[in-house]
């Protein structure tokens, strides 16, 4: 952000002194820095939210209706067996679909080679 502000001040200085900035690397840097800042903004918002939540959890100042207070008291009480079985099933399904897709592509290549 400080580089962006510095470059903006340089643009203002150039404009006040009457120097043209068209085609200048200064303009390219400003565009690049602006795009980076716009792309970082959503990530910054997420990190700010998570930081505030973690701070509230650490200080014990969470509201009673906060979803983080609704988590199970003991993680050992949760049965993860069905979750693992579902994951293995989906992994098997994806592998089978990928094999089928690979076979279809190979058949298409063979057909194309035969037609040439």
DSSP strand count: 0
Instruction: Please tell me how large the radius of gyration is.
Output: 28 Å
Q: What is the helix fraction of residues, given as a range?
A: over 70%
Order of helices and strands: HHH
Q: Mean pLDDT score, rounded?
A: 79
Structural class computed from helices and strand pairing: mainly alpha
Give the termini distance in whole angstroms. Answer: 58 Å
Query: What gross morphology would you assign?
Result: flat
Q: In DSSP terms, counting alpha (H) and pi (I) runs of 4 or more, how many helices?
A: 3
Tell me the β content.
under 5%
Could you explain how this protein is built, in words?
The chain is mainly alpha-helical. The protein has 2 domains: 1-60; 88-116. 74% of the residues lie in helices and 0% in strands. The protein contains 3 helices and no strands. Helix 1 (2-17) runs antiparallel to helix 2 (25-59). The chain is flat. The mean pLDDT is 79.
Per-chain topology:
Layout: H1 2-17, H2 25-59, H3 81-115
Helix pairs in contact: 1-2
Which features does this protein show?
2 domains, mainly alpha, flat, 116 residues
Task: Describe the structure in brief.
This protein has helices spanning 2-17, 25-59, 81-115. The chain has 116 residues and is mostly helical.
């Amino acid at each position: 952000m400080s580089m962006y502000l510095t470059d903006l001040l340089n643009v203002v200085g150039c404009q006040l002194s009457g120097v043209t900035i068209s085609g200048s690397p200064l303009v390219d840097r400003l565009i690049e820095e602006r795009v980076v800042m716009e792309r970082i903004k959503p990530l910054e918002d997420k990190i700010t939210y998570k930081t505030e939540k973690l701070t509230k959890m650490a200080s014990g100042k969470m509201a009673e209706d906060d979803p983080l207070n609704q988590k199970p008291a003991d993680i050992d009480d949760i049965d993860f067996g069905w979750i693992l079985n579902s994951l293995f099933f989906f992994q098997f399904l994806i592998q089978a679909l990928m094999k089928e897709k690979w076979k279809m592509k190979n058949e298409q290549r063979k057909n194309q080679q035969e037609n040439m």
